[in-house]
Specification:
It is a single chain. This protein is α+β, with helices and mostly antiparallel strands. 57% of the residues lie in helices and 8% in strands. The protein folds into 2 domains: 74 residues, 3-Layer(aba) Sandwich (Glutaredoxin), CATH 3.40.30; 128 residues, Glutathione S-transferase Yfyf (Class Pi), Chain A, domain 2, CATH 1.20.1050.10. It contains 11 helices and 4 strands, in the order βαβαββααααααααα. Helix 1 links the parallel strand 1 and strand 2. Helix 4 packs across helix 7. The radius of gyration is 17 Å and the shape is globular.
């Protein structure tokens, strides 16, 4: 597929954008990265995602693919001949991978956000929900090195971006992920050893500083 144009509209702390960075890196797809200012969204972003007006947006030969999980599947389908395979070949296993990616999107983001945007009883409830969610994911991981088994893949890509936010979650939620969910942290550290992940995720202290600025804007500091 020569002369392809691949552009990623993204914002550096976005765990959703990190999914596409990792997937593109795993497939060794060259692309142009365009950092968005979400307070002053570019005409290109508004043109390419007129419905949600959100990042990330993958633009392939002028055509936009929105929503990060959909875009990761698109990357797998378009470049299926490039190793590694991001989704399992077995239909049942693919369905299970999609189930867990959906679970992550429906549960983890909101619980994590509440850890740094709330206080008191609401924050304590969010912490309980967040840790319970991680324990459910630990159960799905089991004793496997990755969610799909021996190989890094779809569910790992869907989840690992959140890890860059964990220092912020722990700081404001006042808990230790390693103490509560050691198997999850071991999995995350295993993922971080992959070049595609290490280069796609920002440093946790940098994300913490970003969250502190947001908290000040929201009047939480």
């Amino acid at each position: 597929m020569a002369n392809e144009e691949v552009i990623l509209l993204d914002f550096w702390p976005s765990m959703f954008g990190m999914r596409l960075r990792i997937a593109l890196a795993e497939k060794e797809i060259k692309y142009e990265y365009k950092e968005e200012d979400l307070r002053n969204k570019s005409p290109l972003l508004l043109q390419m995602n007129p419905i949600h007006k959100k990042i990330p947006v993958l633009i392939h030969n002028g055509k936009p693919i929105c929503e990060s999980i959909i875009a990761v599947e698109y990357i797998e389908e378009v470049w299926k001949d490039k190793a590694p395979n991001l989704l399992p070949s077995d239909p049942y296993d693919r369905a299970q991978a999609r189930f867990w990616a959906d679970y992550i999107d429906k549960k983890l983001y909101d619980f994590g956000r509440k850890l740094w945007t709330t206080k008191g009883e609401e924050q304590e409830a969010a912490k309980k929900d967040f840790i319970e969610c991680l324990k459910v994911l630990e159960g799905a991981l089991g004793d496997k090195p990755y969610f799909g088994g021996e190989s890094f893949g779809f569910v790992d890509i869907a989840l690992i971006g959140y890890y860059s936010w964990f220092y912020a979650y722990e700081t404001f939620g006042n808990f230790s992920t390693e103490a509560e969910c050691p198997k999850f942290v071991a999995w995350a550290k295993r993922c971080m050893q992959r070049e595609s992940v290490a280069k796609s995720l920002p440093d946790q202290p940098k994300v913490l500083e970003f969250v502190k600025v947001l908290r000040q804007k929201f009047g939480l500091e």
